[in-house]
Amino acid sequence: MGAFHSVPDDHQYHILSEKTGFSLEQIGILHNRFKQLSHNSDVLRRDDLNTIPDLASNPIKSQIVEAFFDGRNLRKDSEGPVQEIGFEEFLIVMSYFRPPSVHMTEEQREGIRRDKLRFLFNMHDTDNDGTITLEEYRHVVEELLSRSGSLGRETAKGIADAAMLEVANMSVGRMVQYLLSSVSWKYSRFIDKERNCCYIGIQSVLRKILVHSAYST
Amino acid sequence: MPSPRRALPAPGAVVDPRRSGYLLVLSVVVLGCCLLPLGAASTPNKTPQPGAPKEQNGSPGHGGSHASNYTKKLFPVLSFDYGHVKPPFVIFLWILLASLMKLGFHLIPRLSSIVPESCLLIVVGLLMGGIFKLVGETPPILKSDLFFLYLLPPIILDAGYFLPIRPFTENLGTILIFAVVGTLWNSFFIGGLLYGVCQIEGTLSTVGLLPCLLFGAIISAVDPVAVLAVFEEIHINELLHILVFGESLLNDAVTVVLYHLFEEYAGAGAVTVTDVFLGIVSFLVVALGGVMVGAIYGVLSAFTSRFTAHTRVIEPLFVFVYSYLAYLSAEVFHLSGIMALIACGAVMRPYVEANISHKSHTTIKYFLKMWSSVSETLIFIFLGVSTVAGDHKWNWTFVVTTIILCMVARVLGVISLTYLINKFRIVKLTTKDQFIIAYGGLRGAIAFSLGYLLDTDHFPMRKMFLTAIITVIFFTVFVQGMTIRPLVDLLAVKKKQETKRSINEEIHTQFLDHLLTGIEDICGHYGHHHWKDKLNRFNKKYVKKCLIAGERSKEPQLIAFYHKMEMKQAIELVESGGGVKVPSAMPSTVSMQNIQPKKPPPERALPQISKGREEEIRKILRNNLQKTRQRLQSYNRHTLVVDPYEDGWNEILLKRKKMIELEKKISQMSNYLTVPAPPPDSPTIARARLASDPQAWSIKPAANADTVPSIKVDLASPQSPDSVSTLDEFSRRQQQQQEEEEGGLMMKPPSAAREEQEDGKEQQRLQRCLSDPGPAGTEEEEDEPFLP
Asked: Hey, which residues 89-148 in chain A have their CB within 8 Å of chain B?
């Protein structure tokens, strides 16, 4: 839980900076945002995130919110969902969206990539068993189409089935190749340094998700 | 029909194409010679005159006898009257020549892989020009209005209509910086240094600063035609392609402004600060005005296409006419016509494609490709001819300096701009990328035409300019064009990926978009994703309703993409002989049926393609085939037909064959109960069938069975025999699954019988999906049946 005092402390900022890789300035800005969201308390709850007005029209809102409260993303030993998070956990989740810095070694980049993929994987794998099943995948597609009403729900099944079949029909090598297609560079995004401070970079995301889903025993 | 750029001859027929190629070239040369007597160049014979016959007497065709003349001659059975058909005749003879050249090049096997087509065409043009000169005729020159009004628009429209929007908008910042800042830097660098050189060199000291700057502006613009012609053949990766190509398109505004600015004031001799300021304002007006004009026409075109349900035949016409009018309207105000055309094409495309019929879509695609192809060929040929035809003034210093300065300016510009841009990009541009971008800055016919437009009175050194421009064009097209391919291979630049679009990719793309937008919202930051999301929602809520007819306006992108995929598979199916059932990896056109549940599906015995099936395939193809790729993996203008999956399809076809056999066996078991109680069944068949597919998804029993949504599947209702058979196969299957390690379906042991059945239903629905597309009601009338 939030082991974070309401008065920001430079020392604590430094610790957090070590842990998450954000700069001090970025942590400060995020902390302001955290306080704004949590109405100046030390912990953030689901409702706080659910009430963000911009988020309301997002079809996968619930999954995004869940991701913040998912034990697996918070680098804790507990695997289940938590009810409230503190600023440190908030930062940890945010840090999944940082791009690798230029001064990293190849292993570090690999590690970061794996973390990002793991994050995405966890978003899909809602029952914490390490596999993405057809059901869960269907659920994802349904959520994406949830804005289309009943039309979406029924087609979602078909689409998810098609997707799984695609995965199944290809050998692993080919799947990796075609899934990695252009998503890798397209989904790196930059959020303005001045305005906020979140660098969002997700690269080569699809590989592990579907490897886990289709071929785990 | 798809016409791959490199048609390799059949292995057994190596000699024949070459021979026929040579024959063809020879015949073309002869044809070209025919042009000489026919094309006396007294008139500007490329501008199509409104085919009014020269003779104004009322008699038809054969300029017959004068009515007032009563001397009775023999009635002329056959007469020769070439004069009044000459202009269109010559034009079309040239077009024929150009097309035959294209044919010839691709028949000669080796040539097209070494030399890019543009080079060959220029050489042909040179030859033609030479032949003209030998005969003593004046060869035609690439006149500017011919070029700008007739030859350029088809190419630009083709590029704009099929512009891959997503990579373009994602890299828009980079593209704009290269286009605007890069072109400005090039112009001033080249112009300024050239002026310096001219001052130093004695013979050139009459060349003023402003003419030099004007020359710099003309020569510095990267040419879209040349870039397209060369880049297409090297199949470079999407990012680089869109960067160079986008730059070549967007720098038109800069070129127009600079050109007019310097041309206006070259006479005056000096440019004041006010003029510079006005120039900047003018740039904004030209660029944004062009885009706005294009967008307005695009919206008009989309709106018109909404009502064309009953007159499908003229649908393509609207697209072409509106686009061309957009171009011309922009040119009226000296706005950037190219940007107008691009904006028009890009704006109208999603809406028009949702509205028009499949055939119109094909027509548009083919016509655009055809016109742009012919245009490009003609441009290059005329460039060659004009080189021979024009009178040149060769000045070693000027020309050599120009070439060197062009290259230096380009390299410096790209390096410094990339350094700047990389601070803002997450995917940085590597050195290799920079090299390709710099090396791919080809000049082309636009520069020549702009130079040609110069007024000789104000610019006495026009000839020298033209000579230099042509030399630069030749240099870039020949040297850079020919060497870029081996360089790309040498540097191992990433090529385009031949991957096919997959539904997974689409799902995850959308998922990531929403995820990143959500994270931005949580951060409270209004970034790229936020605005894009807002635009999408606005589009969906208001614009689509206006511009798209009927129900299609509500279709989400994922579903549209999915239908398109199904379409491809349906076509594959039909092409490969239909098959008894439709067993393929064509999952769940059950969904199709659910979207349009207007007509109850006809009852039919499964093993035959009935009317209903035909209808449904027809309807599917009708409705959905018209959507083209929204995101191209690689941008290749000449790919007309989306390639069906290559290797994957062979597997699928094999599987399908196996499944056909198995289905036959299964259908023999159709005398089971119609109640979903599972009587035992032969497990071997089940295992054989299911094991033949390496489908390894896991079906977990739902935690609570009622959350498993149920689809109404009319065809595969639980009462139908087939469903039962697969169901029981399934229950047996579970016991066997422990033995199977790989292949087949994996199922965790179900916790309750009911769940088992539910899963079975799920599974059999899935299998159903595999084996049988649902029917769908007919939605719209079509004037002619697709499957005759």
From this structure: 94, 97, 99, 120, 123, 127, 131, 133-135, 140-141, 144-145, 147-148
